[in-house]
Here is the input.
Amino acid sequence: MRKTLYLKFVLGYLIFGFFGFLVVATFVSSMTLEHLKREKADSLYKEATLIANTYASDLYSSNVSLEEVKKQLDALSTYLSSQIWIINPSGRIIMTTETPLDVKHESRVENFDSTITAGSFYTVGDFFGCFQEEMLSVFAPITSNFKVQGYVVIHIPMANIRASSESLLNISYIMLVIFFLLSLIILIFFTEMVYLPLRKITAATEQYAAGNLHYEFQVDSEDEIGYLAASLSLMASEIARAEDNQKKFIANVSHDFRSPLTSIKGYLEAMLDGTIPPELHEKYLGIVLNETERLTKLTNSLLTLNNLNMKGMILEKSVFDLNSVIRSTAASFEGTCQQKHIGIELLLTGDRMPVLADKSKIEQVLYNLLDNAIKFSHPDSAIRIETNEKHGKVFVSVKDSGIGIPKDSLRLIFDRFYKTDLSRGKDKKGTGLGLSIIKSMIELMGGSIQVESRQHIGTKFTVDFSFDIASKEEVYGSEDTIESSAIHTIKGKRILLVEDNELNAEIAKTVLED
Here is the structure.
């Protein structure tokens, strides 16, 4: 049988109750009896001393008669519920409240010894065999002329004291039971606040261990137990999501590899069996080459993405002019822009923007963003690249006037292999990994990327880079610096790159409208 935490707690609770009763029944019982015995002895000793100094002293001084003293002691005996004796040092009983006066018959306590108290003023026992039960006997000496003439001895049954002790013990037992029952609140609190939530967490971990990562549970608590449950649920959901992404990833990779491989195999078999005549071999070999290039591109993208996710890439920082990198990247698309009659407008902050960053990765991010913008832009449209500097961050935005992205696809476009339905017809060669690679690279450099899009109106990607702004002296001395005049070398019939001033912007607008 598995020993659960709750069973241990209940067992501890029962052990606590058992030892509580044991302590009350032994230690508390003896301590209470001893306390009552001392308290009663103190009280009786005061009475015995008072009697010895008054009635008994007068008796030995012959100031009062035996009858008068007997009458007073009888009254006191009734009041104290005890027996009062007057004894000579030899053990002869002068007077006792239990029997009438009888001077003719002498009563004696055999073997009487006043030192029986052993330095105290009371003793417990049968008082030299005079009683059949245990008695508490208190001694007070009667002195006259500086000599002990006798003793006042007060006897009270120990049964009376034990009865008082048991009454107090009964109260202690009742209080213990009440305390024990009240302590059930702790057990109930533990059950509701700790044990039941832990049961839910344990059941959830068993489900997760069995592979059911979609198992849902809820613990309504704002303490560490609730935090643990929420963390466990989040962990399971993240693992489930990662597992689903892995399955989706494998399915997408298999699909994207199978399609070109099927085409390659089909065309090659057709050429080998003569289905495709020799004069058309060159045409279909070109198709096969395109498919192999597609596979190469997909493989390289996967390797790049894997290195980024595994933190395997190291940033190679250097000082360079960001504006020059943007200009040169835009210039590399001159031919494509001329074919589609697309213009690129540059609205750059300042003539130069020296930064300390990884130039190659910045170029790759800009290239992929601009490539996507051109790919999905309409002919005779413009793409705007804009930079801004705020609070030590550089913001670069790439805005097109293309087909846009559906609202329900915006949160998915950075997932691996994801393609919107609108892009599938236009981007047949795409792998669906470009934006995922871009996001990973930007996050590796400590930045972030946001997207705004309206269907059939256009899309705007904004990247914020948290890299250091270098001094102008540093970038002027760098071999990466590109003169601003280089922008004029890429002017084409339908493409214009302009700087951030009103005059050139107006010229760009005029040229694009022509």
